[in-house]
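Encode chain A's predicted structure.
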Amino acid sequence: MPSTTIKIDVIVRDILVSYKKEFGSKSLSDTIHILILKYENLKNELNKKI
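Encoded structure for chain A:
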């Protein structure tokens, strides 16, 4: 289980880095909203695999 958590942390960090490069000018609330959507998609993908 810890390895899954580490993978999610790495993926979230990658999303943050890539997001900052692409959408650095957007507001924080927009950023959080998009990250939540990406996280939900990621969670759904992981649940399908388990």
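Residues 2-49 form one domain.
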